[in-house]
Amino acid sequence: MKDHYLIMAALGLATLIMAWLPSVSKKIKISFPIILLLIGFLLFWIDIPLQWPDPLWNDLYLMYFSEMIVIISLMGAGLKIGTIFSFSAWKRPLLLLLITMPLSMLSAYFIGVYFLALSIPSAILLAAILAPTDPVLAAEVQLNEPTREKEPEDKRRFTLTTEAGLNDGMAYPFTYLAVMVGQAGGWATLNFSEWFWDKLLLKIVIGVVLGIVIGRSIGFIMDRLHTKTGLKTFDGFVSLSLTIMAYGVTELLHGYGFLAVFFVGITLRYYETISGNHKKKMHDFIHEIERLLLVIWIILFGGSLMNGILMLTDWKGIAFALSFVLIIRPLAGLIGLMGVKDPIRTKLAISFLGIRGIGSVFYLAWAFTQYNGFEHKNELYSITAYVILISIVVHGLTAPSIINYFVQKPGKDKPKE
């Protein structure tokens, strides 16, 4: 019983501290995930009796917990974007999705095969799980709150927000590809047409369409309830309920729930007959739930680091993690944005701030629950942990200063187009 109260006190204190961390991080110019990670180290060191990873999580539990945080974050990202639908605004994230993401994946795959000596399915999986930028840990470089402009004032934040929302769903087909190649025994025996038409095209289309349909339908219902019966929807928790419902329905109907949730958020935000105050309330509620779960996730991640997960790979894994965060993503980002007439400093900021995090862990755990024949399981978990740790530290120490630079010198961000 004493352990029970000790856990409650420790988690309560950690989540209470989170209430002030965003403001503190702005003052000291260090992203709050770094501080949360240090709190996790401290709680592990003083032996708070949590169910610490030893050093790995249970795949199924890890998948469920990470899944919940990611879908909540995706809804929040969608609700931030608002009425921005012009090609000029969306060109940057689409280029990152269509050029930068494939380049990053190809680089990770070939390095995985020829440098890390991974099997082909494991190398595909490594490439797939590192494809998405993170909508959770990257909150400080994304849009702060719902916006209504037809053109985003801060193109860096808009680009990073929409990229995270889109590529978190687009990583799913390639994680499926890793599983299918493993099950088939290699490229030669893979049913490529099934993967292409079903896992890549059909499930993406269903996810996007259902997201738009559900968002429009709920917006219509909320509006009609008010205009026809006088009933108003005041509660912000509607956004959480809608997130879970949309994700579950879309997955049951053979679509990608991540994409659906993101497009539900965008579509609801676009539905102008819903009160703007209520949309902000929905966004604020989902954002607070996301931060609450983030505290627990990072604390457990810190315990996993302290408990030895980083020891499950060698110097090659560490070198790969460093190069992926510091070289591969920035270069791929610059290549993807070559056709955009933005100042080079803006392109560098967007390319560098491709933060990795919880989405990668979800995909890794999901793949292991689908196929237990992956080789190098422990090493893949360790490399992923290194990538996330490096991203938290490097981006955590630099992102606030980068964002602040453009805030203080807004003219530096003006595109030439």
Automatic annotation (TrEMBL):
<feature type="transmembrane region" description="Helical">
    <location>
        <begin position="60"/>
        <end position="82"/>
    </location>
</feature>
<protein>
    <submittedName>
        <fullName>Sodium/proton antiporter, CPA1 family</fullName>
    </submittedName>
</protein>
<feature type="transmembrane region" description="Helical">
    <location>
        <begin position="200"/>
        <end position="221"/>
    </location>
</feature>
<keyword id="KW-0050">Antiport</keyword>
<feature type="transmembrane region" description="Helical">
    <location>
        <begin position="318"/>
        <end position="337"/>
    </location>
</feature>
<dbReference type="GO" id="GO:1902600">
    <property type="term" value="P:proton transmembrane transport"/>
</dbReference>
<dbReference type="GO" id="GO:0005886">
    <property type="term" value="C:plasma membrane"/>
</dbReference>
<dbReference type="Pfam" id="PF00999">
    <property type="entry name" value="Na_H_Exchanger"/>
</dbReference>
<keyword id="KW-0812">Transmembrane</keyword>
<feature type="transmembrane region" description="Helical">
    <location>
        <begin position="292"/>
        <end position="312"/>
    </location>
</feature>
<feature type="transmembrane region" description="Helical">
    <location>
        <begin position="94"/>
        <end position="117"/>
    </location>
</feature>
<keyword id="KW-0813">Transport</keyword>
<dbReference type="GO" id="GO:0015297">
    <property type="term" value="F:antiporter activity"/>
</dbReference>
<feature type="transmembrane region" description="Helical">
    <location>
        <begin position="164"/>
        <end position="188"/>
    </location>
</feature>
<feature type="domain" description="Cation/H+ exchanger transmembrane">
    <location>
        <begin position="15"/>
        <end position="402"/>
    </location>
</feature>
<dbReference type="InterPro" id="IPR006153">
    <property type="entry name" value="Cation/H_exchanger_TM"/>
</dbReference>
<keyword id="KW-0406">Ion transport</keyword>
<feature type="transmembrane region" description="Helical">
    <location>
        <begin position="30"/>
        <end position="48"/>
    </location>
</feature>
<keyword id="KW-0472">Membrane</keyword>
<feature type="transmembrane region" description="Helical">
    <location>
        <begin position="6"/>
        <end position="23"/>
    </location>
</feature>
<feature type="transmembrane region" description="Helical">
    <location>
        <begin position="380"/>
        <end position="407"/>
    </location>
</feature>
<feature type="transmembrane region" description="Helical">
    <location>
        <begin position="349"/>
        <end position="368"/>
    </location>
</feature>
<keyword id="KW-1133">Transmembrane helix</keyword>
